[in-house]
Design goal:
The protein contains 10 helices and no strands. The chain is mainly alpha-helical. Helix 2 packs across helix 6 and helix 7 crosses helix 10. Bound molecules: adenosine-5'-diphosphate and nickel (II) ion (NI).
Length: 218
């Protein structure tokens, strides 16, 4: 496997993500790619597989492809083969791509190889911390969602379909996903990085409720 394949996947993904909004643009892909390569340097795993899966993990996201769930693996395999990858390597990357996504608070993560754990951890780390807050409110803004509505409680989604259909306010997304991610990281390296980012989310949500309630901090 050559880095030439990784380079051509990267170029193609950059081209396909042109014009995507900031919660899911090429900068997100690139942050996940760089974090995944860092995690690989500490944890091991097949570097080419991790690189390709990180670059392709959102290649056909249900939020951007008209609602098709679990379509990314198929698109990733086709692109890898078109760009010269072996079929067996392409299938392994495709399997990772289909399993990276968070599918709901009540839906357990599937069994995972180290390569899947690393790409999933890198994607989850980009959903928390300051960038996580920015991405969530950008997403909420794009979909015209209110910041918060105390009348609408968070849900514990038991299926990917129910999670994908959710149209709640943005603060609920913190309870339905973002604040749960710390305990759904797999590698030790990611757990360590996640601690500070999680604390920041907790602080943000606590401050949000405080200001919402009218507190002036006196
Ligand atoms: P995954 O990255 O595991 O596939 P999603 O596609 O559900 O997870 O979400 C990716 C990111 O998109 C979230 O981390 C968040 O930044 C944003 N997002 C998705 N759904 C919402 C939502 N309902 N409210 C706010 N942000 C959201
Ligand atoms: Ni992603």
């Amino acid at each position: 496997m050559s880095n030439l394949l990784v380079e051509s996947i990267r170029d193609e993904v950059r081209r396909r993500f042109e014009g995507h909004s900031a919660d899911h643009d090429f900068n997100h892909i690139d942050r996940v790619f760089r974090m995944a390569m860092y995690l690989q340097s500490r944890e091991g795993g097949n570097a080419d597989m991790i690189a390709c899966a990180a670059l392709l993990h959102d290649i056909s996201d249900h939020k951007l492809n008209g609602g098709k769930l679990n379509d990314g693996g198929r698109v990733a395999i086709a692109l890898l083969i078109e760009l010269g990858a072996d079929e067996s390597f392409a299938r392994e990357v495709g399997d990772i791509v289909d399993q990276v996504s968070f599918k709901g608070a009540g839906v357990p993560d599937t069994e995972h190889s180290l390569e899947l754990q690393i790409v999933r951890d890198a994607d989850r780390l980009d959903a928390i911390g300051a960038i996580g807050v920015a991405r969530a409110f950008h997403y909420g803004g794009r979909h015209d969602r209110p910041f918060y509505d105390p009348e609408i409680a968070p849900e514990n989604h038991q299926s990917f379909e129910a999670y994908a259909k959710d149209k709640s306010h943005t603060i609920n997304h913190f309870h339905e996903k973002l604040l749960l991610l710390k305990d759904r990281l797999h590698t030790q390296t990611a757990k360590k990085i996640g601690e500070e980012r999680h604390r920041f989310l907790e602080q943000f949500v606590a401050e949000f409720y405080k200001e919402w309630s009218g507190s002036r901090g006196e």
